[in-house]
Batch of 2 targets.
Target 1
Amino acid sequence: MIFLARRLAFYFAAFFLAITFNFLIPRLMPGDPSDRIIASFQGRLNESQVAAIRQSYGLEGSLWEQYLTYVGSVFRLDFGISTVQFPEPTASLLFYGATWTLVLVGLAIALAFTIGSIMGIHAAWNRGGFFDSFFTPINVMMNAFTPAIVALVLFYAFSLQLRWFPLGRAHDPNLMAAFNFQFIGSVLYHATLPVLSIFLVSFGGWHLGMRNVMINLLNDDFVILARAKGLSDNRVKYRYVARNAILPQITSLALSVGYMLGGALVTEQVFNYPGLGKFTFTAIGSRDYSFIQGQLLLLTTAVLVANLLSDIANVILDPRLRKG
Amino acid sequence: MTEITQSSSYSLTDRLDAAAIASAAPSQAQLMKELHVKRRPGWTSRLPPGLAAFATNPKGMTGVVILLALILFSIFGPMLSDYNPNRRAGGPHVMPSQEHVLGTTRMGKDVFTQLAYGGRISLTVGFGAGLTAALIGLAIGISAGYFGGRVDDILTFFVNVVLVLPGLPLIIVIATMVETASPWVIGAVLAATGWGWSARTIRTQTLSLRTREFVLSAELMGEKKWRIILVEIFPNMLSFFMSGLVLGTIAAILAEAALEFIGLGDPNAITWGTMLFWAQNNLALQSNAWWEIWPPCIAIMLTGAALVMVNFSVDEITNPQLRASRKIGLIRKFLSSRGRSADVF
């Protein structure tokens, strides 16, 4: 419990640091977001109109007052008004995009972690065998093929040439969002290639991580004892070695959520998938600062929540942490 | 009497053992043949042991050769081409031919020239950012581990924050605030955000080294702190520093390409990432101009793969248990064919 409380305190501190970054970065840069809007009116604005625009960007008052207003608006989930899809509030765009991004990243992480770990267990158990010496280097090399390129290759092969998969969208536009077989099927069909490209660049990391941790455990006393007792290979493999090897993997799983989300941003761009990445891309093009800052806060929150979940999972799986 | 029998019986079994061993054990040459072990080439014995281990590691050397080829290509490639990478050199989307080795872009620029010039910037930014991040990680990791106490608490807090904050989204925020993010700005941001992992591993390693005898004796002799860190601790960190450098460079090259690909970079700069950006924007794939999009893709993939291979060899040399070669499989087969337990491997 003390362990979890300390972690929770750290996550709050990290969250506040992210808010502060978000607040300070535009104010440290030469020129601020409102300048661009004001300049676009070419001096046709009077004093009070300029002040009103600056007010709406939270740029009035002392730095400390601005900071308090900013923190307040973050906790009210008020991220301002989007300039791209005026007058839509940024928050609703953010949450719409985030839903689809979470579908992609959630599916990809689940697949990559499960398949990668199983391959790693297999490779470590038969170390030096054909599977290990052939697939370990290849899988890890896939990691170095950035999501952008893998996505481009898949898009070219399966969407453009073979036409097996759609050219964009998250689901068939003729279907209404509903919890039925047809709609979910359409969502999965549209998500296949984006998920596959995030999966391909990330499962090698889990393979290598699991393999290396497992190999270091294989000669430990408790494994030798378990074998001396005559337990079956499968029991030693999964219940003794893999169970211990998975603990550090869960911690790095949570830390990798940020990287996976970054990969999803790029993948969505290639597949024209209406997630956070697609919206961020248009926001970058038109310098929609409120959206760009919002996506950082939202994704940071997602990573922090993932870390909290991994701490809880570690406490459940590892009795040693419960005493501390 | 007893003395003689004892000594003779002892020497008899001894002789029997020697005979048994001589008849059963294969010669060294036979063993090497069965295990497919090759003698190390002679010139490696003149290298320092760490370097020799690296030079005889096939994966590591393959990676180094590919990297050298890419570096040589980007140094000398531009000299082979008569075109200016920023200027129109021919019609739009010309097929690869004698005149344009890799064809032209939709804007009519020569792809080969762009690839070579782009390599200069992409590789420099990638290696520069990777090196800077590894140095920051080294400095922070060693200080946190060695000084301990309050310093450690504060530094570890920042290391954890850097690890938790999602990299790409943070860089997107910083890069949009700068009016045009040149490759150098992107490199600086990547270096400033990419040192978390190496700082963490180096801190853990320093913690375990700090209590070793050689560090204690240096402290007792009254050596200065910076000298202990640089002369006593740093040489033991070299392998961790190397793998931090390689991983940091991979991350920086891939992240730079990703950032420029989604349109955050300066579109007028010539790098592999901006080449991808223009190819995607000009719908090169949809209009079947494969030569505009695949060359930068292949260059980025080759760089990543080569660095991964180098990292593999660093891993294998520093922790031989992790070696994934067929040799170990052969040794296991060899041992079990002679009725020995192969579990230690």
Target 2
Amino acid sequence: MLLDVSQSTLPADPVALGTALEATGYLPDEGLATAAYLALVMHRPLFLEGEAGVGKTALARALAEVTGRPLYRLQCYEGLEASHALYDWDFGRQLLHLRAAEAAHAAGDPAELEAGLYDRRFLLARPLLQALEDSPSVLLVDEVDRADDEFEAFLLEVLSDFTISIPELGTVRAETPPLVVLTSNRTREVHDALKRRCLYHWLEHPDFEREVAILRRRLPDVTDALARQVARATAELRGLDLLKPPGVAEAMDWASALHALGARELDPDTAARTLGAVLKYREDTDRVHALTRGALFGGG
Amino acid sequence: MAADHRTAGNGTRDVVTTVLGFARTLRHAGVAASPARVEAMLAAAAHLDVLDPTAVYWAGRLTLCGSPDDLDRYDAAFAAYFGGEAPRPRRSTGAEQPRVVRTAPLGTGEGSEDGGEPSDLATRASGEEVLRHRDVAELTVAEREELRRLFALLVPAAPMRASRRRSPSQHGSIHRARTVRRALRDGGEVTRLEHHRARPRPRRVVLLIDVSGSMSPYADALLRFAHAAVRARPASTEVFTFGTRLTRVTRELRLRDPDRALAASGSAIPDWSGGTRIGEVLKAFLDRWGQRGTARGAVVVVCSDGWERGGAELLAEQMARLHRLAHAVVWVNPHKGRSGYEPLTAGMVAALPSVDHFVAGHSLAAFEQLAGVIERTPGSSSLARSRRASPRGRTTGGTS
């Protein structure tokens, strides 16, 4: 049932996918739409790199919505192990099962008892296995650069043929390979072997018009004038050579912060008070305060 | 020859030849477009309109490139091969920070110079001992040749840190999976608890090597030291050179043979024996690599004499930033090995407050000492603690 829904909604070309994404509130540019389209039809993972806050994670959510597939997210961190990413056995229940079996009839067939222990119902599926079992799905492997290289190795194994073999149970294979989105903030170089299996896309900050459109779309209550001013000021902040240039996410935070304060326009005073929504380093805040006594956030 | 392919034909064969030719051009431009990637580009193109230049552009860019560094080269190669402009949306990276150069077609400055034959080494043992303590700037060609051999024997050990990954152990927290698996073997009776504990992992070491004019007598030795470090721990060592710009040479230094590795990195460095703008370059390093993760929790070793042409305030500011990110900051100054040396240059004065270990780096013995400092370096925080406890100076390493 799920299958034919997804087949029928598979967009015909990048433009169609772009339009469908726009309908969900995610506004991709041509390159990103092509990348997502190819990932979908070629069954190749999409490797997204770019500054923090340019919308890498949001794309996976939007794609799940467009394709009507469930989204499984795996947040990476150092020391991430197979038992957190693939599957784990529910040891507590296994022991209980064993005790219960013992209590029921003291001497059962040991082999049968053991086979009963490694039943699917004692298996805890983690995101990678869930994504394969619930196919077709969208799998988001977030911030893969945070995981260590040991993890990369077995991620590679899963992504190359979309199967997971569980020694006690057998092999789980996805009927339709999941749409995989990997994101990285480039805190370290991800291994070439992994990148080679993926489509690589570098996400840029959106241009002015697109950013205004995104703000208007995501925050419908914000006035057009405020959205334009926030987009312009954010673009200027990006040109200031800051420690952490603000991304789209920060621009959205800022606009909604301003809106929450009841501002209909960006004036120097409210801008200064809400700067914490866009700038996340004290040095950056000091710098902007010193540089722009009103010049940046003035009128129009 | 590019003109022949300009009109991408309708037949599959034409597409294949065009793509293969383009991949060749791209490889010349320095993008590693491997056959597997080219195959992926063909598959991608099959899903798109091959007569639309924009579609071809994206099909290639998404499959053939692997890092942001590839993108500019890809654009140039695309424009050269298909004619016209790459249909790429503006890159709005904004800040015109010094670009990191990985390969530049400049001639080798050093490393390829041919020394004379090694002299007769009859008195090798005692000779080696003397050589180990000699300032590398004052060596003859033959002596330098001999020292290179000794450098190859240097194996800097990596500092370790606890990782989040665990391995079986006698002590530590209980490993449920193994405990239960064992219990199941024993008929469901937990007879013994299995433990596991954090496994140590090598801590990242980042070497920033000054290759400007004033450091040129030491650049060869420093790069050899860097090569030894990269060879010992390829995955956790990063090497950058700087003068007026920053160059990552880690890849070049991974070549096994020291002379080939040095020649390769020599040709990758565009600013040999030029001036130094340490502050600016350090900022480029931190913006592009350091803050993202390369410097986080790492032992960062800056090898420079501190002759700063730019402003000392910028250097002080960036060193403080580096110090906040890194586990420990080591500064290697070859001049420190000279008797009567005082860190008086503006750059050194600006940098020292953010340096945990200030060491010499002028002779092989000093490099051995440096390897020891890197291996056993306590973090800035624990160092601060010990400094408070005992009035010991912060500088480590000898003045021989």
